[in-house]
Protein 1
Amino acid sequence: MPSFDQETLRADFPVLLREVDGKPLAYLDSGATAQKPRCVIDAMGSFLSERNANIHRGVHFLSRNATEAYEASRQTIKAALQVPDTHELIFVRGTTEGINLVAHGLEEKLVEGDEIVLTIMEHHANFVPWQILAERCGVKLHFAGLKEDGSLDMEEWKSFFNERTRFAAFTHISNVLGTINPVADMVSFARERGVETLVDGAQALPHGPVDLGTLNPDFYVFSGHKVFGPDGIGVLIGDREKLNSFRPYQSGGDMIQRVSVNGTTFRDVPERFEAGTPNISGAIGLAAAFQYLSEIDWKLAFAHEENLRSRLSSELEKTGDVKIFGSAEGKAAIVSFFPGFAHPHDVGTILDSAGVAVRDGHHCAQPLMDYFGVPATVRASIAFYNNDDDIDAFLEGMAKAQRFLA
């Protein structure tokens, strides 16, 4: 039965026991990459030391065993996300490759004058591929803005839909603001108008389960390293018929049906988009991460994260001369702020000297930084393994930064 014992869960993450310059590590950069529980590390190590072999090709024991483990991982993740029967799960390197795969597939389906709707809060991974596609196909892009609290301006977003709109791509949770978009409503609105959708779920899954059977977008993408799994592995989930209509994104071994000197035919999904030897150990580690997360009571975990975020934000506001971006109701535990007394990079450096890991920069969201009129922000991103000691260290580090830099 799912439970939430924060101290026990925190102990599952070996790296959190480290010290930085003699100070306990306060890791507040999970939005960039989440730390890994011991079970993920062990699952990958066990495969590599006891079952390592290539998949789908050999009849020997190790190859059969590796193939079974790889495909079982796919089924574990599909079940955890409640993937609709009409969808398929493809292993990719991460969110970025998944979005590029879809953009590549759409290139032959769009014509000059077609339109795509995006939002200004997108990560570069959900921004640049569409800009490149627009240049190649003569497609027009629309970027919906935000309300004052950092939530999406839904009325403006809806206003961009017309008879030429073919596609809409949007993040589930903003990696800068923590804003949780109303994905179900957005997918439903687009589908009613015959518009396909892609949802960037990279920041959503670290904060609780996602039910794709309910949301049911045409495509959903995420990265393993942000959901307490390995790096170099990610997932694209998409409508099977639509994916099979895309020409292959990469070509090579394992994605072919038949090769001859006269030509090549290709397999259906998922193999159609898994050319070459995949990240087998990464898929196994990712499945272990999902199994681990299934044992957490996410109602309690989210409440814990929110308590830490609320405390960090309220205490930060008391320090003065900082501007926090994003206060939408129900937001995830991400706090981005601009320190009026110094450059964000300098603040990040001072925090690091206090053992506190945060992110400083544009967070691969330069259009959003331009929208707010700042060059960068400092971002503290909280996970369920963080505790009050981490927040204390952050606040002490910020006081130090103001003393040195103000």
Protein 2
Amino acid sequence: MFAIDRIRRQFPVFRLTDDHPALVYLDNAATTQKPMVVIERLQQFYGHENANIHRGIYRLAHKATQSYERARTKVANFLNAKQPEEVVFCRGTTEAINMVAQGLRHQVTSEDEILVTAMEHHANYVPWQTLCKQTGASFRVAPLKENGSLDLYLLGKMLNKKTRVLAFTHISNTLGTINPVSEIVELAKKHQCLTVLDAAQSVAFDQVDVQDLNCDFLAFSGHKIFGPMGIGVLYGKTELLADLYPYQQGGGMITEVTEQESRFKNPPHGLEAGTPPVAEAIALGTALDFVSEIGLLNIREHSQKTLNYALDGLNRLGKVNTLGPGSGTSNIISFVMDMIHPHDVATILGEAGVAVRAGHHCCQPLMQALGINSTVRASFSIYNDTDDADRLIDALKTVQKIMS
């Protein structure tokens, strides 16, 4: 049984005080709240284990290095990667995708095409657009169906022998659309093009098995899976990581430097220049332990149940238009209210203690395709329940009264 009360007690942000009334936090697609075990792990490292890694030969540095590399192994196991060396630590999904895009720059020519989808977050759109400007490659965008799902037929038609990279999201951060990753990767493999998967929204919602999905690269952010901000992961197949030119160069990733040239370490360390976010990586490992203890199947079932309950309430309100596939999909609802700007909706909800996101959600090309400027987005996680959904609906009724 999903013990929601026990789970909520592990998150300090939900503890009630006179200055901190009951919070309905429905902005989980932007960032998740942090359980006490993650916060304590950060404190433990900085209070008792702080040292730079890999080069120190004293006890404290050795312990920090062990903990950091143990976190890498935890991530590899969480993703079912073949080996820890397929995991590169970085600042987040954005940096991970930029690492791939710029790391491939020496391999992309004006004869190539880069293909993305119309539902991409800017982090999986702009880096590829920039790469095309740098190399002269063609930038192409696969369209969506009216229901917010990817048009796989047209995607298949757009893929061809010139397609160098197909970059796409697992779950849309705006619509909640879940893309059939294995099917899309199979289409791409027919044309020998690389696949780059944005898993920022999926890692905290469902099991992500990189061997089963067979994607070439995958990126996610720790702060969206109950971990700290400033830490993320780039997964890549061993031989493909080795082909990436280091996005940054400096300390820690060098084997030899002479006046004539420099030699880089093999991945993952050759892609991790400078002092990495050591404490954050270790705390990310703790966050993954926390998720594994609850169980991703339990998380998915609970999140979908809460979303469907909220969706029913939205549909009963009237004058509310929900976007995307809707019921039975992910943990994200995006909607607009007739004649009421999303920012006004979010402001009134915020005053009622209901935290949602309003805007274009870093998906301006998607907004242009939908013919709108912004939406209200509610996204659910393990500490949300039907009471939270009821407070959302009640607050939206207040919005309609105030703005009518």
Protein 3
Amino acid sequence: MKSFPKVIKDLPEADIQFKGATGWIAQGKNHQIVFLEMKPLGGVPEHSHNSPQWGVVVEGKMELTIDNKTKIYKKGDEYFIPAHAKHSAKFLTKFRSIDFFREKMRYKPKVP
């Protein structure tokens, strides 16, 4: 499978401000799960969140730096970003992940 199935793409699309990024939101009462697809990009600049993030790579390779420690993540690898940890990413190939954010509105739904 080279893309998420229709059952995922029928979810609300996330308003993601990074070029080449598309995501679909499964909204919970106090969290979001985002099914993310990224084109190979120069990267996402360093930033942080007020809550933790956990993810698993579905396809591709990502260089992820968390608190100045860099590691390559590929299909099947999990990652955890603690609340307030500075992190950045480079997407080395087409990339898909499933990310859990412990905040209700990490991403807002895209307005058509």
Protein 4
Amino acid sequence: MSATTPATTKPGAAAGDIAAHRSDFPILSRQVHGKPLVYLDSANTTQKPEAVLERMDRYYRDENANIHRGTHLLSELATAAYEGAREKVRSFLNARSTREIVFVRGTTEAINLVASSYGQGFVKAGDEILITGMEHHSNIVPWQLLCQRTGAVLKVVPIDDRGELVLEEYERLLSERTKLVSLVHVSNALGTVNPVKRVIDLAHARNVPVLVDGAQSAPHLPVDVAALDCDFFAFSGHKIYGPTGAGALYAKEKWLEAMPPYQGGGDMIASVSFEKTTYNELPYKFEAGTSNIAGGVGLGAAVDYLRELGLDAVAAHEHDLLAYGTERLLEIPGLTLVGTAREKAGVLSFVMDEIHPHDIGTILDREGVAIRTGHHCAQPVMTRYGLPATARASLGLYNTRADLDALVAGLGRVRELFGR
């Protein structure tokens, strides 16, 4: 895999024991349309374990106050919980310091922060930003906006029919004009695990910084930003069994020191006068306004939960499911998998002959099976394969082979209704 296990990752549960934790997720016991819920949409958002729900509830019940600016007990408790979560994220990613962990709303805001702040400080007309052909819209549009503002040029590394990067083209596109490389670690539309370490090493040989979109890797693979040596790494809490509206940007301290603030307001300042403002120390320089305190605390609880299980065990469990699901889906007449990279994680995208993905998703929903259909916020990927959309089943640690059997049975119902 492209990620490296940090030294701080616990051994966790054995891979075969991971599915036993399904009972930790209250929502998975419910029914939809009179059928037991089979949730196969974790690339969209994950369900939340009781430990995360309880921790956020406890914050609001027992600790609710604003942080960093109060001298009373509740403020001290809230600040300790919030900053404790920052330390958990630091350890989760194996960053050197909490000064390198900026709390944001999620991966999208993290990328926008870098595009705005790094872009303002380091990108000018004629420079080039390099992305790939498998990016989520959140790793395309911010760079387009930057190029519109500065006159920089966006370059795209192509992908092959398997859904793998064409590394020879990447090396060719890297040049003295390249000011930043930004790429997804794991594709949300294809499941491809990119060779990010190789990508980073090639970029650094030209002194080009690299941003890694880790929205889909953080839930599935151990990530060590020190070993990867990436300059920026972004992920979202709701993808790792935590709350929505919470996430983190890791950035090397040298960049955060050099970049101008992303937004202005409370908490990102040291002092303000009408003549001049001086900025707060890292990471608060990039955290203007009242934070999503409950979200940060919930994010810390989600990190605790994943680390207790062990990302290695989670990855092994999901790899087994991916192999099993691939085998079962390929047995279905008229079904074609989209994205067959040799290194994959957690995603099964497919189409069925002359059946629109939206129809597939609607019929599966009536069978209790939740998947996502559409372009998955990755329209250039769909264009690459000449498709308007795909159906996507995506895996979480709570899934089992029985869930994939239910998916296959539901697809049998789809074929039946369409007279196949």
